[in-house]
Amino acid sequence: MLASRFFISTLKEAPSDAEVTSQKLMLRAGLIRKVAAGIYTWMPMGLRSLRKVETIVREEMNRAGAIEVLMPAVQPAELWQESQRWEAYGPELLRLKDRHDRDFVVGPTHEEVITDVARRELKSYRQLPRHFYQVQTKFRDEIRPRFGVMRGREFTMKDGYSFHADYADLEREYRNMYDTYTRIFTRLGLDFRAVAADTGSIGGTGSHEFHVIAETGEDDIAYCPDSDFAANVELAEAFGPGVARPSPSRSLEKVHTPGVKTIADLADYLKIPVETTVKAIVVKGDETPAGEPVLLMVRGDHELNAIKAQKIEGILSPLTFASPEDILVAFGANPGSLGPIGFKGRVIMDRTVAAMADFVIGANDDDWHYVGANIGRDFEEPEVADLRNVVAGDPSPDGKGSLEICRGIEVGHIFQLRTKYSEAMCCRFLDENGREQHMEMGCYGIGVTRILGAAIEQNNDARGIIWPQAIAPFELVLCPVGLGKSDAVREHATRLYESLLEAGIDVILDDRNERPGVMFADWELIGVPHRVVIGDRGLKDGLIEYQGRRDVEALQIPLAQAVDFIRGKLTTAS
Amino acid sequence: MLASRFFISTLKEAPSDAEVTSQKLMLRAGLIRKVAAGIYTWMPMGLRSLRKVETIVREEMNRAGAIEVLMPAVQPAELWQESQRWEAYGPELLRLKDRHDRDFVVGPTHEEVITDVARRELKSYRQLPRHFYQVQTKFRDEIRPRFGVMRGREFTMKDGYSFHADYADLEREYRNMYDTYTRIFTRLGLDFRAVAADTGSIGGTGSHEFHVIAETGEDDIAYCPDSDFAANVELAEAFGPGVARPSPSRSLEKVHTPGVKTIADLADYLKIPVETTVKAIVVKGDETPAGEPVLLMVRGDHELNAIKAQKIEGILSPLTFASPEDILVAFGANPGSLGPIGFKGRVIMDRTVAAMADFVIGANDDDWHYVGANIGRDFEEPEVADLRNVVAGDPSPDGKGSLEICRGIEVGHIFQLRTKYSEAMCCRFLDENGREQHMEMGCYGIGVTRILGAAIEQNNDARGIIWPQAIAPFELVLCPVGLGKSDAVREHATRLYESLLEAGIDVILDDRNERPGVMFADWELIGVPHRVVIGDRGLKDGLIEYQGRRDVEALQIPLAQAVDFIRGKLTTAS
């Protein structure tokens, strides 16, 4: 590509409403332009990267045996009423009426449309399994679209849906997609993790999220650097320290703690490590009489995990805190000084607490705590459960090391939908015995446009974007210095450009005749991973200059070996 | 591709609501499935053809120097209000509100969005010209969507928009696009015509439509088989016979024509050729006093062309017929017996009438006509104008032969928008003298999904679709007979399939193990242009069978030469 035949539009400053790095850089580098909140035009430079992502996704989906289709953006409400998502889906579902006053949606996802296709097309077990996917424009009416293409309203997704005769076959395809997504994100050149995830609102059981690791990510991920284990922090199982509870070494002592309401205050006031304290949290039970207070005990520096707690039998779900009135009746004290000693109701302690001795806890007397509290000695041995979020240093649930915590940006998600949609929409087939069965379904999404934002969040510096080579708008930029003045530069630049094209390298020749400073700043902002500079100074010694986007220094390369050298760089880089 | 890894779904009968051939065949061949009125899912087989069309369109647009972008489907109403199309566009514009009650549209076209991009990005004549295009999903809320993808509501378009410093440069790009479209439709393998067209509602002046020629087309096109001339029948200039008016040979005679109201009745009753009669049509003038009747004279077998008539100075536009009351006052007679003799008002005759003598015309006396009427002798020489639609046999306006009439399906349209949008939306640049100017704009559309319907309307037979090779879902199908039973068939079919893939041929191996009759019927319906059959019967003599989709008979080909033979067929076919 010649720059003069292309469109390059960089900005010195990002618009003031841009919030995150990727959004600022995409706007500054001219990859996207805003049309309305969360709605963008993909400019030529951005579209090239977008298409490269799409191509990799398609190649790997096809290789995995999925078959491409294209479903409409505008979908009839009837299908959403059948699946009962017309009511269940919130205001993110963009609803509209056509000229005949019929209800439609601009689809945020396509379970209904594809299930309607499947129930009409797939009648026999002989036609199963099938996996249909598409790369398509979706709309989700976010209440607060932000972060550019990271949480836009109109976006491109790859969404695939698989149909199976039985659960074992769904599991096989789920694994196939797990492997396929792993290949896709590897080919995209991204540092990512497959994360065991909650299923969210899309329904069904069994799911993994694929996260691009980036400090600016919205999700906390617990992972084991020594194994494949990764999970949303809220879902990872938290274990105790794996050592037996020490014997009590102190006697129970009631101390006055005037005005102390929080764990931080308490540790501060008593000048003790927060790890020696225990938090008491009172929630409602769901057994007769409903709402009866249940006491949860979590180490002072740990966080209660509501999802884990509400899954415990006898605990009201969603997790609901007991009212101050009920607490006062049950404990004889107010929050801030609560504890198990003297409490007659149900007590559940976290696994970590179960291994503690001589800790500090509320005394059920306002402004008083116990120090030297011990389980079994000072109060009855309570139930034990996993009640908290994991923290860095916790043992990995797979037993292969310790957990670390990082932040991630969700770019892919695979689900076992099971029969949620096939039952709601009567999507049935005849099995080998001639019996009608509901199909088992899986669904598999990749946020194609979001990937670009995530890739930039992961790969940037003060000068701009640093694209992974596979999805850079161009692999290489050729910058001639003094193009307008030097015949030698023009001639050699043109010849090298043509040789690079012939070698199959995705190169852009910057023939805009800009000053070197302007050229270099533009291409560093745009983030093209490889740069070659060709100028009279080097040419007189038969040299050109190569610099990788992450390199600190440029290399002088003989012009005669330029193509081979660059080919080598492109092969080894990622 | 292996058929077992693909998705083939043919139907014996088209759904009862399918109206036209292409729609029926696309549904029967499993290319599309209906989701709602005018809204379809592209099934795997149809999507392959769609992608091939997109690829050819992109390649030629890129080659022509246009730059690809991707604009959003959902567009803010503000832009449409600025261009005043928010009001002007009818109910085909799908309007909607987001969750914050802001107005949006699902875009049927993108002049506003791209003009908004251009006015923000292009500031100087140095940045001009620019041509941006996209291949994108559009929505037009047709009152009566029909004919499958030919007049759907959601569809794919290639729409391009060019921006220029002056009109001469717009004209250059317009010609560039005329040539590019010609290349595109040629590469698609379609019989088409570029047709001078009215600009319709999109605005501006200067436009050509590109029509795929098909008997089932909705538009009548006049074209010259001996030249490039082609125009919408309503726009082609109609000339007289090019010979002088003969001298009168009969005297004027008033004949009784009881109950004769139409030209057909008249010719029938008088036993004369309809070409010797003249129709009198009375329309309203727009001069003072407004609405004054004007008499238009057109040969009996010709059709009045309203667009031409209303362009004549002094004629009310849009063309409005005079009321029966006004006619009775002005002519003393009712429609069916009207004529120029004795009429005191303005009379305009068509060029063909101007060359007639001894014709029959109404006598301005109910149930009476004149025969042997002659211009100049029996009434004053009237004004002459082009008032009618052209008919087959008319001289071509370019003087290169006679016109023929055919029917076409519009699949492309190029417009000179001029400054309609740049003025409405303040899209200006600084010219070489530092003066602000409005950009000249062109716009260029191709109905990508519609092309598939048009291609099928043009190319089909009783057995199904006959794809032009360039856009067939597969170029070649390999049908093994007795795959399940014969090791030789399996072995040779697999080997040939692999050799064909290696040769870069887009082949599908039908490994479904269906009976030959089922296979052949499926692939003839789907319309794959080349077929090879491999079976034990031929293999024992080292032969396979080749048949082109349009061929009457199959050929026996030595297996050893199969790849070369097929490559030859693919190279020469279109």
From TrEMBL, chains A, B:
- Residues forming the Aminoacyl-transfer RNA synthetases class-II family profile domain are 33-468
User: Is this entry keyworded Aminoacyl-tRNA synthetase?
Assistant: yes
**Enzyme Commission number, as recorded:** 6.1.1.15
Keywords, A to Z, come to: Aminoacyl-tRNA synthetase, ATP-binding, Cytoplasm, Ligase, Nucleotide-binding, Protein biosynthesis
Reactions it catalyzes: tRNA(Pro) + L-proline + ATP = L-prolyl-tRNA(Pro) + AMP + diphosphate
Q: Which InterPro entries match?
A: aa-tRNA-synt_IIb, aa-tRNA-synth_II, aa-tRNA-synth_II/BPL/LPL, Anticodon-bd, Anticodon-bd_dom_sf, Pro-tRNA-ligase_IIa, Pro-tRNA-synth_IIa_bac-type, Pro-tRNA-Synthase_IIa_type1
A Pfam family for this UniProt protein? tRNA-synt_2b
The GO molecular function terms of this record are: aminoacyl-tRNA deacylase activity; ATP binding; proline-tRNA ligase activity
Q: Where in the cell is it found?
A: Cytoplasm
* GO terms for cellular component: cytosol
The entry's free-text remark on domains says: Consists of three domains: the N-terminal catalytic domain, the editing domain and the C-terminal anticodon-binding domain.
In its UniProt entry, what is this protein called? Proline--tRNA ligase
Gene that encodes the chain: proS
